[in-house]
Amino acid sequence: MTMEISNTGAAGAAGSRLVVNRRRQEGNPVLKYVRNVRYEWGDIGTDFECGPTCGVLYLALKYHKLHPNYILTRLSGKDENKYACRILLVLCNVDEPRHVLRELNLLCYRMDWTLVLCYSVEEAAEYIENFKLADSRDPAFKKPAASVPVDERTALQNAAVGILTGARSVTKTDAQRLLYNFGSLKAIAEASEEQLALCPGLGPIRAKNLYNYLRTPFTS
Question: Ranges for the ERCC1-like central domain (predicted)?
């Protein structure tokens, strides 16, 4: 169930809005900086629903230090796990976050969530906007896979992942999400740097690395 629109001045068409968990996120300063997409309050499992296949949980490390068991409950929730693309967006607002980030990274790996870090509420809002824009982009990037035998499809998928992870800092998870969002290696290779950056979890730096990598000429 969704409720009234909150930022009616923002860009975006009705029916294609970011949905925000009112019970958990009302008063979150991040919302003040969500300006490039429209959002509405909704009864959802995650904190932000960027589309039917993308859910985002938001966690500030200051809160995590006070309530260390909270995020495990959220990551393992049934309603939170109904999305194909599940993102934990973490605000690094404590000193020396390395140890706690290592624990969160391991937790996300074990529970099949993508960990994305930000260092200000403005950056958090920008990520959330990009996740929503990525979900709303041209459907040509989400073409279904052709009818190929399972073993062959797995081999092709692994080969494509191997190619993409050759780019600096691009992980196996990044590669899998790129293939899921773009539909094929060809579509990824033809995408602009800006389009690559919209892929959830990739970000502008890895997008630039991948864009340049895919355009590096082969040498004998």
Answer: 20-132
| Integer Cα distance of 194 and 52 in angstroms | 23
pTM for the complete prediction? 0.60
Confidence band for 30, pLDDT divided at 50, 70 and 90: very high
Which strands form 48-51's sheet, in the order they lie side by side? Answer: 2-5, 39-42, 18-21, 48-51, 54-60, 85-91, 114-118
Please tell me the predicted confidence (pLDDT) of residue 218: 53
Q: Among the three residues 87, 103, 136, which one is the final residue of a domain in this structure?
A: 136
Q: Return the CATH number at 47.
A: 3.40.50.10130
Burial of 163 from C-beta contacts in 10 A (0-12 / 13-18 / 19+)? middle
**Domain span at 98:** 2-136
pLDDT in tens, 63-88: 999 999 999 999 999 999 999 899 99
Residue 182 DSSP label = H
